Automatic annotation (TrEMBL):
<protein>
    <submittedName>
        <fullName>Uncharacterized protein</fullName>
    </submittedName>
</protein>
Amino acid sequence: MLTEILFFIKKRQTYVILISLYFFTIGCQDFQNDKLDYQLRDWLLDREKTIQLYNLVDANDCENAELLFKKLKGHEFIYSSSMYLARCYIAKNNKYALRYVKTAFDGGYNIKLLDSVKFKPIWQESKKYFNKANPLFWKNVDTSYFQKIENLVFLDQYIRRNKTDDYSNEVRQDSLSSEYLTNFCNVYGFPRTFYSNNFESYREIDPTILAIHSNDNHKEKIIQCAIESALDEKISWLIPIVITKSFYVAGKLKEKENPLFLLKFDNSNNINYTESLLQLYVISELYNKEMPSKIYIRPSKLNNHNVEIIEKQLKQIKNYLINNLNFDENNIQIINKISGMKAQGNINKNYLYTIQAVEL
């Protein structure tokens, strides 16, 4: 089960929030050079369908779960849901169960996920297919960076577990890790992640924690890299979500202004909701659910628009948060006056708006 990890750093303490999700990590496919367009809205819809599918499987309603399965778009959810459907069908239809087991194996899932007793009717056929499919799967995966990522994550955690009043080692290691990750992104995109579901024994290849601990300059580039990789379905959209969340909590003082640097607007000065969804979704998740707060959104010192455009854009931001992301309208205040404060963080791009969150 994929676990979302956010590190809230305040002074010398690290707070860890573990938010378990209902789905496994992204399954793996034979990615070609063709550009895909798997938007965040597609991922959110797939996630909702998958949660409904899991509930139907728990209720032993395989047929309706399968109907939802056929509506899934992203491979991340197709592969993870396949294993659930196999578990649902094994007591009803061995042919269907085997079909979904094979789909999961094609996505890189390890045979250890199967209970040899429960799946006894199709165990031999499943094992035979796994022995053929698994080598083919790994043949198409670049594993050259696995050990480097594992070593960097190990050092990251080792230094933090054994840190003293001297933070120089931590800063130095974060700099090395974020530089490696940025350089990798420039050439290959964000590294594909793999979790214990993909391996015979416990192992994780996940550089997300390195991105969380990177400085703002690197993090800004890494977020863009992660977005591009998520659009191509090379990684889960959960990764850019987690990294973006960390920008607003890791090393940031409470109740200070932070830049809304991922908002996008079109030539008519209307918000581009598709490209701005990551920013808006993260704000809603953080300040409406995880850390309930009253938020104040205002134009930044870099905003040169006239009052009419500012008012229009602020209204669009507020309305989307309320109507599409269920943000409590009583906890949103828009301020037309340009802020006189410098937003936290070291962001290079010109951002038009800032947000200030005051916990309830």
